[in-house]
What does this fold into?
Amino acid sequence: MSHLPRPAAVIFDMDGLLFDTEALYLDAIIGAAHDHGIALTQAVYLKTIGMSEAATRTYFADRFGSRFDFDAIWQTAFERFRQLSGDGVPLKPGVTELLDRLDSAGIPCGIATSSRHDATAHHLSVHDLADRFACVIAHGDYEHGKPHPAPYLTAAARLNRDPEACLALEDSLNGVRAASAAGMTTVMVPDLVAPTAEAEELCALIARDLHHVRDALDQAGLRT
It folds into this structure.
């Protein structure tokens, strides 16, 4: 479909959707794994995009066994990421324009991310976006992470909206699975991971960028 229903709320993923962070994380984690003697390939890492920390731990433990020291590698990756990102991370195209359109239409926005609250708050503050979201659901706010629907269901509850009336925006297959399982109209805006046949089946729209999402919502009468 080329247009979307008018949503009662819009819930955004963060990394790779609001901020251009996924490529930085990829470089940081592959480099950190190499530092610890693990030959982690891009193809293997991309399988974890959108997963919760717990699911990512399990994935790497199953693949590499006990030699994959998750905590040590993630600490090294965090230090690498800080070096790569410098003073902040860039916004993805269309973020501000879409938020402006939703604000003008009186539609509340939330975030449902697998990242931690401190990282989320930092990225939002760099671009002065913290006040643009009525709720931020991050690691620690739900029992099960993506691809489980809990992050999106928690966000909908926090916004006091029916999940089936919400629009979810995601860049990863695991995120798409989570949003769709929550009953939300789901749009994928691909970043590092190309849409699969499964994603196309679960999504109302595969968008080029957030400008495309705004245009699709305008067809639903969002423009004022």
Observations:
- The radius of gyration is 17 Å.
- The mean pLDDT is 93.
